[in-house]
UniProtKB/TrEMBL annotation:
Name of this chain's protein: Gelsolin-like domain-containing protein
Matching CDD domains: gelsolin_like
Top-rank taxon, per record: Eukaryota
Coiled-coil parts of chain: 481-508
Keywords: Coiled coil, Leucine-rich repeat, Repeat
Length: 1259
């Protein structure tokens, strides 16, 4: 019986069934054409490429079904729904249905239907919903909200048992009175967001109505008298119904059970009188009204918990507000409240959790508000705050949200002394106080701030003494003594009783024989030797009838041999237990027990034969010994049992109890790799060459061999991540024994094509061996074929590579569907398959519970995750359920290959799949899509589906084997031992004296003179001494001369600087090498410094490529000495990052170091040239570190200490001046505290940056 028949609930939300119908039509046409050309061969079932609903017809016990966002359009409803006779709840939310008439006879087809939800569809007319739908006898809940209905559906009044009706967000203008005449049991009614102008008076007949929602309807002239007759009403929503004081029903106070009232978005100027009389009110919403006076509020709602007064015209809050002792949420934002408008006693609201007073005119808040101990959210944005109470620091520690943005004049008061010291210890584990620093420098221990000395309380001591002298003390002591005496007597009596029992047992044992002293296990052998046999055999005859009885060992247990023909015919692969029963002259049973060992029997049978022979003796209570008989060495007494005719045959009937370990069958899996820099995405593909696309990388997993196919147009980051994925699979799943092969496109190996074409499979991984197995393996000879399977495994045959096909069919923007996680839930006799809600549509490891079993449809792969604490039966049910639901999941099982089926003409792949010879191949591929994995042994493919699973290999490549042996493996213990002592003396040391401007310019000139070609003053350009390179499209190119000294923060650069080498080591070397040479040879020695500059927003990929690919070759080239080959030149490499440049590096640019935003390749793009650009000039410490950095053009970034350069493009100048011009404007803004020299520097930099773009006046 199929497991799906036990399903009681199924959630299929997010599975698209739209394309399955079109695909079936195309495949039928293709099959018909193919059959005609092949002489009408027998047709086979079409392979299921898109999810289909055919499996639903087998779910005969289904009670609830969710088809949310499944691509149902127009009148199409799955016909399999008509087979679900026990269906009670049907959800069709978020589809494009225009009619439900495709199912005929709803009461007969779905007689158990209780709830139907058809929210957010395209139902327009009242005839789109069949009238017989409401004739279902059990129908209780109807939801047709968020459609385009203009009238009530036909026949809705026939649903007399209706309890909940939702028709909100439609265009209904009139409600028929017949609805409330017949449906009198309604408990929930939602008619909000329609065009109702009145309500029928028959609404008062719904005496059980508890929730009524009428929001956003033009009910200006409706008096709503029928609403006041609903005595059971608890929730009333009149938001946006044009309520005023004159059309609020005066009888509203008769709704004594009313808990929630919404009067927002109306025209109320004060709180209506009937509302003040609602004593049980807990939630009141008066937002978006015209309230200006709340003087009538005097604490009339003792149970009120939620009050919303936002978006009104309130100047002050009434003092009666503080009498609402149960208030938890208070919203008064977007009013005109001042400090005096908040009651000073607001601190009495001890249960207050949310206080929102944003967008008011508050100067500060009352100090009593800081005494609300349960406050979690305090929002004071966009006010006129000047300061806050000092107690705000105590409140901030318990707040979850504290917002004071857009208060420009706010000054937070300083922290109290007791909090100032704690802040440093809490956040940095450092006490920043001066006393603590001085104490640390003197070497004294730190004071323990947690030790608190409480003063002695003499009054409390006197009270304790008086309590001890009280009258009740003597009585308590007396009771304790009596209890101890009684316990001692009982213990003495118990010891005497045990001694007496031991003496009696000893006396009984002394009278027994020595055989009786042997303790026999208390086991029940009835189920082993007395089994249920056919009716012609007497039950329980073991050892009762004289003769011979025989048992053979089968799966660790004895099995009775009843056939008389087999007795005397033993098999050498089995072991037997034989019982001979005789009757003595004294009419007493005498037993003789043998166990016979076959020469080819297994060890477990031999051991169990000896054990069960002893068990048989204990079962019969016999006093004899068991006798061992081996094949070929039987005793004469044993042979006499069979009249001297003992026959031993080859073979065995019994099975061994151990599990048969069979060789693994290699099932190759093919994955396509794509994604972004942050996350790698994986999708399963059919194992065929038609799946290859040159824009992607592919991973072929053949267990012992991993092949990474790299397309010629694939991204390098995906190639790197694919190699890392293969490393993880090899290390974590294959014990590091799997081989990794890189297969570039057009240079594939023969083994790769042999696996792709299906003509060869590699050998499986060898079984893991223990230490004892390894020792035995050393002793065994090498001619054992079982131990050398990899050696004797046939090599890959010569496979003919397939002919070149089009490998550009999957678009680069192809995306996997959003993953779906199913929770397999099991009850008594039923299964349910709901979906787990995903946060932001991403899978998280936190969603997996170890007691549950989950089915994960990642979009291109199906996984079954089994928690370590889940039951065995639940795992089995989940596995069977996943196999039978393969027609529904995974949704994109071809990983993008299904795009070929949407073409007008059937492609090669379509013809391949529809061919009869390939149906078995398609079924094998479908079965391989399911990957079971248990908790703690998840595969890497499964882990890659989650956003927070481990990504990196936990390998420390910096440690040697000697280091691991000496210091251990745990890095945390090593870091704890090597934890350095905190040295804070540098924090208290005085700063170094900064260089003066003259000294900085002098040092800059000296460093530039060390270059082999010193630059001219204030001229920065490329030369033989300074060269600047940038990486473009994977190659390092020389920067244009006009862009020399200008850097982009999203790129990386190489600056090569050549200096004269004045090192003493080189001089000594030259003198010892050739003292007679001219000294000019020594002076020609140079050294090269290669600076690698990395922008703040640049990727580390350029640095890795430079470090592992370019550096070695560059060092070899730059170290060549053209004059003396034996003396190489010195080459030094330095990596510098933005804002962390070396001072000598900056000196070469003579204060003209420019940093742009963006990429170098976009330097001449119109999008960059046509926007406003803003740069600021600053120097950190001295003039050498002067930088000109581009920032966002905003007034907020202006600082009076710096000088700014602002370029306005020509098209904006034309708009501002209201005349056409082709000149851009460049402004130099000088701060009041900036250096006077920066102005000249700014003019020079402006000409350097913008002179090539356009002509401009300098303003």
């Amino acid at each position: 019986m199929a497991v799906v028949q036990y399903l009681r609930g199924l959630d299929l939300s997010g599975i698209n069934f739209e394309k399955h119908k079109d695909l079936l039509d195309k495949q039928r046409v293709a099959r018909r054409t193919q059959n005609n050309t092949e002489n009408d061969n027998s047709s086979l079932p079409l392979p299921s490429i898109w999810p289909s609903t055919e499996i639903l017809q087998d779910m005969c016990r289904l009670q609830w079904l969710k088809l949310k966002n499944v691509g149902l359009k127009e009148k199409f409803l799955p016909k399999e729904i008509t087979h679900l006779e026990q269906l009670e709840s049907l959800s069709l939310v978020r589809n494009e249905l225009t009619s439900l008439c495709s199912i005929k006879g709803w009461p007969n087809v779905l007689p158990s239907l209780r709830m139907i939800t058809c929210r957010k569809n395209e139902l327009t007319s009242r005839d789109a919903i069949p009238a017989d739908l409401f004739e279902c006898n059990n129908l209780q809940v109807v939801d047709f909200s968020c459609n385009q209905l203009t009238q009530l559906p036909n026949g809705i009044e026939k649903a007399k048992g209706l309890l909940a009706l939702n028709l909100s967000n439609n265009q209904i203008a009139l409600i028929s009175p017949d609805l409330f005449v017949q449906c009198t049991e309604l408990m929930f009614l939602d008619l909000g967001n329609n065009k109702l102008e009145n309500l029928p008076a028959q609404l008062r007949r719904c005496c059980s109505l508890q929730q009524l929602i009428l929001c956003n309807n033009p009910l200006r002239h409706a008096q709503l008298r029928s609403v006041t007759a609903l005595k059971q009403l608890e929730v009333l929503n009149l938001s946006g119904t044009e309520r005023r004081l004159d059309n609020i029903p005066n009888e509203l106070d008769k709704l004594e059970r009313l808990i929630e009232l919404d009067l927002s978005c109306n025209l109320l100027t004060k709180i209506p009188e009937p509302v003040l009389s609602l004593k049980n009110l807990r939630k009141l919403n008066l937002a978006h009204n015209e309230l200006s006076d709340l003087s009538t509020l005097t604490g009339d709602w003792p149970k009120l918990e939620y009050l919303n007064l936002s978006y009104n015209q309130l100047i002050h809050l009434p003092t009666g507000l503080i009498r609402l002792s149960c208030l938890r949420k208070l919203y008064v934002n977007n009013n005109q409240l001042t400090f005096g408008g908040i009651p000073s006693g607001i601190g009495k609201l001890q249960d207050l959790e949310i206080f929102d007073a944003s967008h008011n005119e508050l100067e500060t808040i009352p100090e009593s508000l800081c005494r609300c101990g349960r406050l979690k959210r305090l929002i004071l944005n966009s006010n006129r705050l000047l300061t806050l109470p000092d107690a705000i620091h105590y409140l901030k520690e318990s707040l979850d949200v504290f917002e004071v943005d857009n208060n420009p004049q706010l000054k937070i008061p300083p922290k109290p002394p007791e909090l100032q010291k704690g802040a440093g210890l809490a956040f940095y584990n450092i006490d920043f106080s001066l006393d603590a620093q001085l104490r640390m420098m003197r070497g004294k221990p730190a004071l323990n701030t947690e030790t608190i000395h409480h003063p002695k309380d003499p009054a409390a001591r006197l009270r304790r003494l008086r309590r001890r002298r009280g009258e009740g003390v003597g009585k308590d002591s007396k009771c304790v003594l009596e209890g101890m005496q009684r316990i001692a007597k009982e213990k003495e009596e118990l010891l005497e009783k045990k001694e007496h029992e031991v003496e009696e047992e000893t006396r009984k044992l002394a009278a027994r024989r020595w055989q009786d002293l042997l303790a026999r296990p208390r086991l029940d052998y009835t189920g082993i030797f007395d089994e249920a046999y056919p009716l012609d055999i007497i039950l329980g005859d073991t050892g009762i009838n004289p003769g011979v009885q025989m048992w053979e060992l089968d799966q660790f247990y004895p099995k009775r041999v009843e056939d008389d023909i087999l007795q005397g015919h033993l098999l050498n692969g089995d072991c037997y237990v034989i019982l001979q029963t005789t009757i003595s002259n004294n009419q007493v049973f005498e037993w003789t027990i043998y166990y016979w060992i076959g020469s080819r029997s297994t060890k477990d049978k031999q051991t169990c034969a000896a054990i069960h022979a002893v068990n048989l003796r204990n079962f019969l209570g016999a006093e004899c010994r068991t006798k061992r008989e081996e094949e070929g060495d039987e005793s004469s007494e044993f042979i006499a049992l069979f009249d001297g005719n003992l026959i031993v045959l080859d073979g065995a009937r019994g099975e061994t109890g151990f599990i048969h370990v069979e060789d693994d069958v290699v099932v190759p899996r093919f994955y396509r790799l794509f994604g972004t820099e942050k996350r790698l995405k994986i999708v399963s593909m059919p194992l065929t060459h038609l799946s290859l696309d040159s824009k992607f990388s592919y991973l072929l997993d053949a267990q012992s061999h991993l092949y990474l196919w790299i397309g010629k147009n694939s991204r390098s980051i995906i190639q790197t991540k694919g190699r890392l994925l293969a490393e993880k699979i090899s290390v974590r799943e294959r014990r590091g024994e799997a081989s990794i092969h890189i297969e570039p496109e057009t240079r594939e190996s023969n083994a790769f094509w042999a696996i792709i074409t299906g003509v060869w499979l590699p050998a499986p991984l060898p079984k893991p061996t223990t230490n004892s197995d390894q020792k035995d393996h050393i002793i065994k000879p090498l001619d054992n074929h079982d131990e050398n399977k990899e050696i004797n495994y046939p090599p890959a045959p010569v496979a003919q590579p397939p002919r070149v096909v089009s490998r550009d069919f999957i678009p680069t923007d192809w995306q996997l569907p959003q993953p779906i996680l199913y929770d397999v839930q099991m009850g008594r006799g039923y299964l349910e398959l709901p979906q787990v809600e995903l946060e932001n549509g991403l899978l998280s490891k936190r969603l997996l519970d170890s007691k549950h079993v989950y089915i994960l449809d990642s979009g291109g792969q199906l996984f079954l995750w089994m928690g370590e604490k889940s039951s065995k039966f639940l795992r089995f049910a989940g596995y069977k359920l996943a196999l039978q639901l393969m027609g529904l999941m995974p949704r994109s099982r071809l990983g993008g290959l299904e795009l070929l089926f949407t073409e007008s003409n059937m492609s090669t792949l379509t013809q391949t799949l529809l061919n009869n010879d390939h149906v078995d191949w398609w079924n094998d591929f479908t079965d391989s899509l399911l990957q079971p994995c248990t908790q703690g042994a998840e595969t890497q493919i499964f882990k890659c589906q989650f956003c927070d699973w481990d990504e990196a290999l936990a390998v420390d490549f910096t440690r040697t084997a000697d280091s691991v042996a000496r210091r251990g493996v745990d890095i945390n213990q090593i870091l704890e031992k090597d934890k350095p002592a905190t040295d804070l003396r540098a924090l208290l040391a005085p700063r170094e004296t900064p260089l003066t401007n003259e000294e900085a310019l002098q040092m800059m000139a000296e460093w530039n003179d060390e270059l082999i070609e010193p630059p001219e003053e204030n001229i920065v350009e490329s030369s033989s001494a300074l060269q600047q390179f940038i990486m473009v499209d994977g190659k390092w190119n020389l920067v244009e001369n006009r862009w020399f000294g200008q850097f982009f923060n999203q790129d990386s650069y190489i600056l090569i600087a050549r200096y004269w080498d004045y090192d003493d080591e080189n001089k000594e070397f030259s003198e010892s090498d050739n003292q007679g040479d001219d000294t000019d040879e020594d002076s020609n020695l140079t050294k090269t410094v290669v600076y690698f500059w990395q922008g703040r927003e640049a990727s580390d990929l350029s640095w890795l490529q430079f470090e592992f690919s370019v550096r070695k070759d560059m060092q070899a080239r730059l170290s060549q000495n053209p004059e003396n080959v034996s003396r190489p030149l010195k080459v030094v490499f330095k990596r510098v990052k933005q804002q962390q440049e070396d001072t000598m590096f900056l000196a070469h640019f003579q204060r003209q170091f420019i940093i742009h935003s963006g990429h170098y390749r976009d330097r001449a793009e119109s999008s960059r040239l046509e926007r406003i650009q803003m740069y600021y000039i600053r120097a950190n410490g001295n003039l050498i570190s002067t930088r000109c950095i581009e920032v966002k053009p905003s007034v907020v970034n202006l600082n009076s200490c710096f000088t700014y350069i602002i370029k306005v493009p020509a098209h904006i100048v034309s708009v501002l001046e209201k005349k056409q011009t082709d000149k851009c404007h460049v402004y130099v803004w000088t701060g009041g505290k900036s250096s006077s020299e920066d102005k000249e520097l700014a003019i020079r930099l402006s000409e350097k940056m913008f002179s090539w773009v356009c002509s401009f006046p300098l303003l």
